[in-house]
Amino acid sequence: MLRFAIYVLGLALVAWTLLSVTRTVVLPRSAQSLLGRMVFRSVSAVFRIIAGERSSFAWRDRVMALLAPIGLLTLIVVWVILVLIGYMGMFWAVQDQGWAEAFFISGSSLLTLGFAGAETFWERLLAFTEATIGLGLVALLISFFPALYSNFQRRERKVGELEVRAGTPPSAVVFVSRHHAIGWLGDMRKVWLDWEGWFLDIQESHTSYPALNFFRSPMPEHHWVTAAGTVLDAAGLVVAACDLPDQPEAQVCIRAGFIALRRIADFFGIEYDPDPAPGDPISISRTEFDEAYAALAEAGVPLKPDIDQAWTDWAGWRVNYDTVLLDLAELTMAPYAPWTADRSSPRHVQPRLRRWGKRVAVKLTP
Predict the structure, then answer these.
(1) How does 273-283 read in b/e, with b if 16+ C-beta sit within 10 Å?
(2) Of 355 and 45, which is predicted with more confidence?
(3) Which among 216, 205, 256, 264 is positioned nearest to 235, based on CA atoms?
(4) For the segment 74-121, what is each residue's pLDDT rounded down to a tens digit?
(5) How many angstroms separate the CA atoms of 341 and 226, rounded?
(6) Sign of the alpha-carbon torsion through 80, 86, 89, 90
């Protein structure tokens, strides 16, 4: 009876592990894996302790850059160990020898080493199935990592492009001002359509491969969350404050953006109001918006004369993604960027920055 119970437990452990592999590597949709979540939470907790909330951002960035790669490698090791333990229990249940022999034959079969031979029919059957799982894991991982890094490269191409258009750290005001300076502001349809496609891409990739959310950009000051916030804020400024012909593509881009951020937030269990009212409070104050409006006016950007209506319209767009944007910035420990990571936690140490084109001291707490 005991051997039968151990056999069933071993079989259940292997099945649970393979379900985690399927959800993580094979299934092309957003699906939670309890095992994967447990591993990443444990690894993340260790890394956040090492990074330290009060340490410099440069140190935290160097530490957190290793979180996703080490988390994935740890998950792979856990998969292998759990399959080995599960089959070890099944081998022990079908043979007369002890646990040490069951461990040796399980490890030999999983890694296809062949130094421990199976004698009975049931032992050979288990050895064949475990070897198949071992080879299958290798094959899946060979295809998984190229797909993961392909999605990462597509994301980072647009994030890197934003440095040219929005400065470092990225700013919505700089984004709008620079496009005006080069004569593109009046017709940015392709810009908004490109970013709409980017949002749709990260919605699919960052929920199918959740580890991507924690892969940091090659440049410490770049980050996909701050890029998303900058583009959404800039599109909102163009729609609400700039006196230009209608650009419905900008409105569609905003909607694609906040839907993408909400889908990612859903995956991580981040709470938000799915149907906020236009007048609900947001993290950006009216004073900050007025400063941005004045900076755009100083840059020569054509603006709508009614600043009160412009604020109402812009805040009505921002309320759709304000909460999820800041929570994702905190979750991923994004670098400083105005209106995004400057009001998330951990607090970002940034002594003096060029804000709206003027050298001023920046208060980083709300």
Answers:
(1) eeebeeeeebb
(2) 45
(3) 256
(4) 999 999 999 999 999 998 888 777 888 888 888 888 887 666 666 677
(5) 7
(6) negative
Would the pTM count as exceeding 0.90?
no
d(CA 142, CA 295): 50
Please list, in sequence order, all residues whose beta carbon lies within 8 angstroms of the beta carbon of residue 81, skipping any fewer than 6 positions away.
Answer: none
**Nearest 5 degrees, angle CA 76-CA 207-CA 31?**
70
Strand locations in the chain (E): 352-355, 358-361
Q: What are phi and psi of 303, to 5 degrees?
A: -120, 155
Q: How far apart are the first and last CA of the chain?
A: 63
Please report how many Cα atoms fall inside a 13 Å half-sphere around the Cα of residue 71, on the Cβ side. Answer: 28
Strands (E), 161-226: none
Q: Provide the CB-side half-sphere exposure for 316 (13 A, CA).
A: 11
10 Å CB burial of residue 78 (0-12, 13-18, 19+) is middle
The two tokens of residue 303 are 């603006």
Separation CA 32–CA 19 (nearest Å): 11
Instruction: Report whether 254 contacts 235 (CB < 8 A).
Output: yes
- Check residue 97 and report its DSSP letter: S
